[in-house]
Design brief:
- Helix content is 74%, strand content 0%.
- It is an all-alpha fold.
């Protein structure tokens, strides 16, 4: 009873479905056997001896399950029994493996694919079934695996062996006169049922511990039907039999030795874990020396040559790596790992086009492998190949829908300049599949905010300030903490003359991290000056200067170093900063190729301060860019009338204007002045022009 309790407890705790099915069948058969002849008291006592340990084991297993944190497989024994169906993932995987095995056998019906070759040849059939690097290795059905590997004739022989053993032992159980013969036949039948059911759902043929039971089944069947008749065998026959056994033993021993060497190498490879580490105990050359001629794959189906290639990749011996990857491809080229490492080699060599091709080859070999998908997608993003990017995503999503892939591809499409409306349609499609994914929803909001922000800036450039404000407002509803939206609203109010509102929004923008250039502080200072708040103006202009904002450094030095004593001085400082505002806006418009509007803005600055050297200088540069050199000369000379331009840049471009007007003497004069102020381009021009 103790032994029975221990065994059944282990079966219940592991939750393996095949043993549970076998346990139910064996108990049913043995109970039927006990009650077959009579319903005696002894029979019921024997049945109680069977039932009591099981009931205790059920209570024990459920008490363990209640303490378990696992809420999936190990909830309760009843829960595990209810999962014995064809709908769960494990059952679906087995059904897929069986279907693939039948396809394999259809392609090689007579001789099969070769004994032991299932673990390699099945991989292409599983590319749309198994995730990542997972391979079945076995069909999870010995009968089907033998069919695929050795052909239909041999599979029928193997199946008939089970049927023959079953018929012989059933006959003995029903018709034998001896009670011992019946008992042995019953035991053999139960062993056959256990092994047979395991053969249907698993692969006991490849498990030595289970093969022992198969040997016992055959031995019990033969011995239980053995006749005591004397059989005379000649000495020569005995010698021949012994000779054959010796030859078979030598052959199998040598085969076992080779398998041992291969297993030892596999152990060393696993210890090195070269897939995850840069270096291991072994080297590529050592792996090559240890590779056996048989078997040529690891128990996980990869070729030993493949691992040799990986070692050589780690050692940056790329020619050797490619040589052994070529050999590995002939043995098992279905996993995509060889192409993955070829992609690594190509990238290290700087051949990005080849790397891109190999990344795609690897992915299409295993379209459910996330690592290979991720690699191929990143290359497509790098190449801005949106068609390939969407193609790979569609294929992967078909088999493994994951919100992470939608997030990655959205970023890639956005980076690649994908059409906005199509990009939003893509994101919305992803949100239909994963409506609760916060990152994907955030991406959608970022796209909307970006669109409203750009739309508002375009409206501002068209002087439609109120409409621009409406566009910024829509963006702010989506992301109330977006510093760029808040900042642009502040700038908009500043342009409209709503100084207090401008200050509020610009101050709000500074509450969040990200604005580091000092521009926001500069315009807060400018706005405070417009509001006659000298103290706050100085505070924020100083902050802007500390962040090296150019205009703050150029145009507010007097304000920082002197006190504002009267209204006249205050007006001058306000005008200086207003001029700076117009000049900044004009430069921005020039960068956007809006030259006419830039000139208008510079002239507004000159109207406020006719003596502004920066306004005159920028107007001069403008006229030089548009080819009106005479006007350019007038404004650049006007800029030089007042002190402050000490870098030699104005003189250099004034000389360029004179050269365009064919006045070489004046050009050389101003080049010499520019050189004396250490303006670097002047030296080279002076040497070549003014010899």
């Amino acid at each position: 009873m103790v032994a029975l309790f221990s065994v059944t407890s282990v079966i219940f705790l592991t939750g393996a479905r095949t043993p549970l099915i076998n346990l139910f069948i064996i108990y049913s058969i043995y109970t039927t056997y006990l009650l077959k002849d009579s319903f005696s008291k002894l029979s019921f006592i024997k049945i109680l001896y069977l039932i009591i340990p099981i009931l205790i084991a059920v209570l024990f297993a459920n008490s363990i399950f209640e303490k378990s944190k696992d809420k999936g497989r190990y909830v309760s024994l009843e829960n595990r029994l209810s999962q014995i169906s064809t709908n769960d993932a494990s059952s679906q995987a087995r059904l897929a493996y069986w279907e693939n095995t039948l396809k394999l056998s259809q392609n090689n019906p007579i001789f099969g694919i070769g004994l032991g070759n299932y673990q390699v040849e099945s991989i292409p059939y599983e590319r749309t079934v198994s995730n990542d690097n997972v391979v079945s290795l076995h069909a999870h059905n010995d009968f089907l695996e033998i069919l695929a590997e050795t052909g239909i004739v041999n599979s029928l022989i193997y199946l008939s062996l089970f049927l023959l053993v079953f018929v012989i032992n059933l006959k003995n159980l029903l018709k034998a006169n001896s009670a011992d013969t019946k008992l042995i036949a019953l035991l053999t039948l139960m062993l056959l049922i256990v092994y047979g059911i395991d053969s249907v759902f698993n692969f006991p043929m490849y498990r030595p511990t289970m093969s022992i039971f198969f040997s016992l089944i055959l031995a019990f069947t033969v011995l239980n039907n053995y006749s005591q008749k004397e059989i005379s065998i000649s000495k020569s026959t005995v010698k021949i039999i012994f000779g054959i056994l010796i030859v078979i033993s030598i052959a199998t021993s040598y085969s076992s030795f080779l398998i041992y060497k291969a297993s030892n190498l596999e152990y060393l490879l696993a210890t090195d874990d070269i897939n995850m580490k840069e270096k291991g105990t072994l080297t590529g050359d050592e792996v090559v020396k240890r590779i056996p001629s048989y078997p040529n794959t690891l128990s996980s189906s990869e070729s030993f040559y493949e691992y040799a290639g990986i070692y050589y990749v780690r050692e940056k011996q790329y020619d050797k790596a490619l040589k052994y990857f070529a050999k590995a491809s002939k043995i098992n080229g279905y996993s995509g790992r060889i192409e993955f490492y070829k992609q690594v080699i190509s990238r290290h060599k700087g051949d990005l086009d080849s790397a891109y091709i190999y990344s795609k080859q690897a992915f299409y070999l295993r379209p459910r492998n996330y690592e290979l998908y991720n690699s191929a997608v990143k290359y497509a993003i790098e190449k801005k190949d949106t068609l390939e990017l969407l193609k790979e995503h569609t294929l992967f999503d078909k088999y493994r829908p994951m919100s992470e892939t939608w997030i990655l591809v959205t970023k890639g499409l956005h980076y690649s300049g994908y059409n906005y409306s199509s990009l939003m349609a893509f994101v919305n499609k992803g949100l239909k599949k994963f409506p609760k994914d916060s990152i994907l929803l955030q991406q959608k909001n970022q796209l909307l905010v970006s669109t409203y922000l750009k739309g508002g800036q375009k409206l501002e450039n068209a002087s439609e300030l109120d409409k621009a404000l409406g566009s910024y407002g829509k963006a702010l509803k989506i992301d109330p903490k977006n510093i760029y939206v808040i900042q642009n609203i502040g700038f908009n109010y500043l342009k409209q003359g709503h100084n207090k509102k401008a200050i509020k929004y610009l101050m709000d923008a500074l509450k969040y991290p990200g604005l580091k250039d000092g521009k926001t502080e500069f315009f807060i200072g400018l706005t405070y000056l417009k509001e006659n708040d000298k103290i706050n103006a100085l505070k924020y202009l100083n902050l802007s200067k500390n962040k090296n904002y150019p205009l703050a450094k150029q145009l507010t030095s007097n304000l920082y170093n002197s006190s504002i004593t009267d209204e006249k001085d205050l007006i001058k400082k306000k005008n200086d900063l207003l001029v700076a505002d117009y000049i900044t806006e004009g430069q921005k418009l020039e960068n956007e190729k809006k030259m006419d509007k830039a000139l208008e803005t510079y002239k507004k600055a000159l109207e406020i301060d006719p003596n502004s050297i920066y306004a005159s200088q920028n107007i001069g540069f403008y006229y030089l860019k548009v080819g009106q050199t005479k006007k350019a000369i007038n404004y650049l000379l006007a800029a030089l009338k007042y002190p402050g331009l000490t870098d030699g840049k104005t003189e250099f471009f004034l000389a360029i204007c004179y050269l365009k007007e064919n006045e070489k003497i004046k050009a050389c004069k101003y080049l010499n002045i520019s050189k004396s102020k250490n303006y670097a381009p002047a030296q080279e021009s002076l040497t070549s022009i003014c010899k």
